[in-house]
Design goal:
heterodimer; A: 143 residues; alpha+beta; 4 helices; globular; B: alpha/beta; 5-stranded mixed sheet; 5 strands
Chain lengths: 143, 112
C-alpha cells in the first residue's frame, strides 16, 4: 500500500490559507483525485486552517500545524493550533452559529468540513488548543 | 483575486475573479462596498464565472452584501455558479436569500 505524509507549519497569517490549499493539492496529485474530490478536500482544509487563524489565534501570533497522510486511497488531514480552544463544540458545530458575526463569518465552517469529508473529529480544550481530524477515501481510479 | 465592476441599465455587475477565502474576502468586501456606495444602481449582480474556489468566507461575504442591498431596498443576484459553488450555496441555504441565473445576460433580461 502506498503511504506518504507531509507536515506544514504555517504562521498565523491569512495568506497561508491559499498556500495550505496549494501545498496539499500538490501533495495529493500522486493519487490522481477527481476535480470534485480535490475541491472537497481543499474546501474542508481551508475551513480548518481559517478556523485556527480566526478563532484559535484570533488573528494574532501562533503556528498552525497541518498534517496530511496518504494511506492507499485514504487521505487523512489534521489541523492543530495551540490557541484559545473551543468552549462549546456542540454550539460551534451548529450550522449558521458563529462567535464572530462582526467579521461576517457565516458559521458554516464545520458543516462544510462534515459534508465534504467522510468524517470529522474535533478535540479541543482551553489549555492546549484545538485539533481537527478528518478523512476522505478517494474513489478507485483503476475501476 | 480582483473584481471588475460595470454598470448596465439598472444593474451593478460585479465580476469576481480567483479564489474567495478569508484572506481575499476582506479585500473584496472593501472594494465592493465602495462600488455599491458610489452608484445609485439597486440591482447587484455577482458574477462567479471566473471564481476558481470559494469556502464559507464567501458565504459570509455574500450574506453581508445581501443585507446591504436589502437596506438599500435593492436586489442581489448570483450568476455563473460552477458545480462546486452551487453545492456551497445549496448547503448554506443561500438560495433562500438570493436568486441565481446561468448567465449575466439571462439575469438582466429576466430582472429588468
Amino acid at each position: 500500500m502506498y503511504t506518504n505524509e507531509i507536515t506544514l507549519i504555517l504562521s498565523c497569517k491569512s495568506e497561508n490559507e491559499g498556500l495550505a490549499r496549494m501545498c496539499i493539492s500538490g501533495f495529493l496529485m500522486k493519487l490522481d483525485p477527481t476535480i470534485e474530490e480535490l475541491n472537497d478536500i481543499k474546501t474542508a482544509l481551508s475551513e480548518g486552517v481559517t478556523n485556527a487563524i480566526i478563532h484559535g489565534y484570533e488573528q494574532k501570533e501562533g503556528e498552525v500545524i497541518l498534517k496530511c497522510r496518504i494511506e492507499g486511497r485514504k487521505v487523512y488531514i489534521e489541523i492543530k493550533d495551540k490557541g484559545v480552544g473551543i468552549e462549546n463544540i456542540e454550539q460551534a458545530t451548529t450550522p449558521m452559529y458563529t462567535s464572530k458575526p462582526q467579521l461576517e463569518r457565516s458559521g458554516m465552517g464545520f458543516t462544510i468540513m462534515e459534508t465534504f469529508m467522510d468524517d470529522l473529529e474535533i478535540i479541543s480544550n482551553k489549555e492546549s488548543g484545538t485539533i481537527i481530524r478528518m478523512h476522505k477515501t478517494l474513489c478507485n481510479t483503476s475501476e | 483575486m480582483s473584481i471588475k465592476v460595470k454598470t448596465e441599465q439598472s444593474f451593478l455587475v460585479v465580476n469576481l475573479e480567483g479564489e474567495i477565502d478569508h484572506h481575499n474576502a476582506s479585500k473584496i468586501r472593501l472594494e465592493l462596498d465602495k462600488k455599491i456606495s458610489e452608484t445609485d444602481k439597486k440591482k447587484l449582480i455577482l458574477n462567479f464565472e471566473d471564481v476558481s474556489f470559494m469556502d464559507s468566507s464567501g458565504i459570509g461575504l455574500i450574506i453581508g452584501r445581501y443585507k446591504i442591498m436589502k437596506n438599500l431596498k435593492g436586489e442581489i443576484y448570483a450568476t455563473n455558479l460552477s458545480k462546486e459553488l452551487y453545492r456551497i450555496f445549496d448547503i448554506s441555504g443561500l438560495f433562500r436569500l438570493i436568486k441565481h441565473y446561468d448567465t449575466v445576460e439571462q439575469c438582466k433580461k429576466t430582472e429588468s
